[in-house]
Amino acid sequence: MCCNLKKRFLLLYATQRGQAKAIAEEIWQQAGGHGLEADMHCISEMDKYNLETEKDPVVIVISTTGTGDPPDVAREFVKKIQDPTLPPDHFAHLQYGLLGLGDSEYTFFCNGGKTVDRRLQELGAQHFYDTGLADDCVGLELVVDPWIDGLWLALKEVFLLQKEKEAMSNNAASRSLSAAPHVGHELNLSSEVQNLKLEDERVRSSDVPTQKLVDIHLVASTRGTEPSLVHSVPPVSQSALNIPALPPEYIEVQFLDAHGENPHLSSLISEGTTFEVPVTKAVPLTREDATKTALLLELDIADTVFDYQPGDAFCVICPNNVNEVEELLHILGLSEKGEYFVCVKVKQGTKKKGAAHPQHIPERSPLKFILTWCLEIRAIPKKAFLRALVECTSDAGEKRRLQELCSRQGASDYTRFIRDSNVCLLDLLHAFPSCKPSLNLLIEHLPKLQARSYSVSSSNFYQPGKLWFVFNIVEFPACPARPVSRKGVCTGWLAELVAPLLHPNKNTLDTKGRSTLTEKISIFARPNNTFHLPADPSVPFMMVGPGTGISPFIGFLQHRQKLREEHTDWEFGETWLFFGCRHQDRDYLFKQLRCFLENGTLTHLKVCFSRDSSTAEVAQPKYVQDVIRLYAKEVARVLLKETGYFYVCGDKKHMADGVSDAVVDILSMEMEVDKLEAMKILAMLREAKRYLQDVWS
């Protein structure tokens, strides 16, 4: 660029949990090094930008939430551009590049980004750069990093074309810019444009000899060994590294002499009203020798205004493990200050764009409260966090390995030893003992401790004032990168909380044998707008819920039973339930399903057990998708002839995809159409909200 004035582009982000914002901040940071200026805003700040009059290129980073919705902050923006009265050339002047974030474990992958991208195209906007769709299932960085790398050349091509147009005759008629060529188009740009690098601009040339010495040391010590979290092998150990820019610090922490009460948990939640409710019952649903341990908990909501429908979900506000919090305090050298109040402020003069006080951190609260209830200390560290930890590490070998793990060259090591191994901050601090991060660094980089969502397993109509939910206690076995086993943050806490209810003794029971314990948990509603029973009770429906995926269907059946009892003159459609588990005698979660079958609430119950051996001459189906195929004609009849509903709940990767494949095959076979046509029919059923999923990864 021959001009010293930095070229501006508009950078918009729409984030739900902070990832899109972090990526936008990375783009903003890198822009200056490429002679560009990013004018960055949250997409909700529509008073600070105007796409209708925007002349500069626009870059959008947007995530997806729920079952394919744009983030909450993008709702107004999406509503505005979805206005059907807008003409097809409304954004004909606009050139943009879009990076969508999503998770392919879910049906509507990157649908937030796809929705915005599609609508901008419909309104005449044109790409100056190909849309990127990053998958959190395999690692966002696999798409994000190269997408950002290519962005700078694409932007500079736009500005070069603009300059060429400006140089044309002033008498030429002005017209809309044509679509900018894609990155592959060859332009005679400077070598600075053609050789984009992500190297940290703060690394001085004097650091290079030290870097080489570290390389040699690591190669010598690890030659002939396998790579691990703490060791690398060639070619990574011998490579010059492209590492991210060091994120600017922006948080200041001050310890106070003051003491006082912990903030109320409701102050941490912006999603809605919280309710503190007692746990009145805990029932084990699996035998002790089952592969997974499933529990049913009953909550008493009678004294609250909390309401729900079968199929809804709700969220549990949970803390980090108390032992892990104490361990972290010890490593940070802050064990004596756990009860001290801390004041968290934005650092004066910080270079971080749009630096603001994190909404999930109280301005004044005890340190232990922040680490227990506010920060996700189990979060898998992002590369930006690793980059910041490099500066807190004194040992040269450890420093080099952290640089490798956050570098482009170490991408596969990052995926293998950190992401796939579920390594968290504590694991890193044990693996790299010379790393001593400050408290403000943790607050800057650890994300908000999210409330955990669970499907309701009951009907408020059937048993007023009660709420059931079912969960497996999540287990993370030890592995080389993480030498200790752990339980899930929320499920492990809940299991520990209700242990006295599961194993009562004479000291915890009253004279009638009822527990005297009243442990309480804080919850808030997370209604599901679609995963509900058909409004017309005469419509048939099928339910597929192996394992704890059966949870919402217990509520469905309770509700249907109560309706049948109170409305004997109504017509009720047939109901099907496909359930599966490993062993009939170990983890058949709800054997009382037979009761629903016997009283007519459930018309058909089909079960399978994947690990039980069979003596039958004909091999028994192992999985629910196999059972569904046995009832192809019935599935086709319910879905196509009787306009029925089909519900799927449970694991996405290992079950829900198999079920949808089975339904596609059934539609293809029964309708005598090819597979592509059958897939279109299933897509139409999804669109009509008659094929519904509540799935998780």
Automatic annotation (TrEMBL):
GO terms for biological process: cobalamin metabolic process; folic acid metabolic process; homocysteine metabolic process; methionine biosynthetic process. Its EC number is 1.16.1.8. It catalyses: 2 cob(II)alamin + A + 2 H2O + 2 H(+) = 2 aquacob(III)alamin + AH2. It comes from the Eukaryota. Residues 9-152 form the Flavodoxin-like domain. Gene3D superfamilies: 3.40.50.360, NADPH-cytochrome p450 Reductase, Chain A, domain 3, Nucleotide-binding domain of ferredoxin-NADP reductase (FNR) module, Translation factors. It is found in: Cytoplasm. Keywords: Amino-acid biosynthesis, Cytoplasm, FAD, Flavoprotein, FMN, Methionine biosynthesis, NADP, Oxidoreductase, Phosphoprotein, S-adenosyl-L-methionine. SUPFAM superfamilies: Ferredoxin reductase-like, C-terminal NADP-linked domain (SSF52343), Flavoproteins (SSF52218), Riboflavin synthase domain-like (SSF63380). Forms a multiprotein complex with MMACHC, MMADHC and MTR. This is Methionine synthase reductase. Its cofactor is FAD; FMN. It is an enzyme of class 1 (oxidoreductase). GO terms for cellular component: cytosol. The keyword 4Fe-4S does not apply. The keyword Flavoprotein applies.
